[in-house]
Amino acid sequence: MIRYYLATNFARHAEMRSVRDILEITVLNCKVVSRWIDLHVDIVGMEYTDGKETGISIDELTSHPENYGYLSEHDLADINEANVVVSFTSGTGAGKGGRHVEFGYGLAKNKRMVIVGPRENVFHAHKLVEQYNSLAEFIIHEKEA
């Protein structure tokens, strides 16, 4: 089974839930393993809702620097589980940089690396990195593979 890790700005987490649904429906025998995309916004605020952590607020997790480790450990574990790291870019390089760390970690772990969108830095031009202009282009490639 192909396991995808989706990396992008946190602000795009709702979009990535839609991407997950599209991939899992259109690409045979695959699973998206990115738990970070299931951070939901509700009237109380954001909650980490991946099962046993249900109800832990993002404010609670991130109000102290040591709590960032909790989130990063999940992300790195998810990348370890993935076969493919798919980084969604915008060309602006915007965000706090976590997605760039995820990309570098995946590259160092010899994962199959994919960019959907424009290349944003020299590592995106590495010979082992595949680049697609759109999600549709990437899905067509995956279905043909």
Describe this structure in words.
- With 145 residues, this protein is α/β, with parallel strands linked by helices.
- It has one domain (2-34, 75-144): 3-Layer(aba) Sandwich (Rossmann fold).
- The chain is 37% helix and 23% strand.
- The chain is built from five helices and eight strands; from the N terminus they run βαββββααβαββα.
- The chain has a five-stranded parallel beta sheet, with helices on both faces.
- Strand 3 (39-42) and strand 4 (45-48) form a beta hairpin.
The helix/strand series, from N terminus to C terminus, equals EHEEEEHHEHEEH
The CATH homology group name = Class I glutamine amidotransferase (GATase) domain
CATH architecture call: 3-Layer(aba) Sandwich
Percent strand = 15-25%
- Spans of at least 5 consecutive residues with low confidence: 41-54
> Share of helix among residues?
25-40%
- Taken together, the total number of domains comes to 1
> Would you tell me the structural class of the helices and strands?
alpha/beta
CATH fold title: Rossmann fold
Looking across the biggest beta sheet, what order are the strands in?
A: 2-1-6-7-8
The CATH class is identified as: Alpha Beta
Q: For the terminal residues, how far apart are their CA atoms?
A: 13 Å
| Mean pLDDT, all residues | 83
Number of strands: 8
**What is the count of DSSP helices, taking H or I runs of 4+ residues?**
5
Largest beta-sheet details? 5 strands, parallel
Compact summary:
With 145 residues, the protein is α/β, with parallel strands linked by helices. The protein has 5 helices and 8 strands.
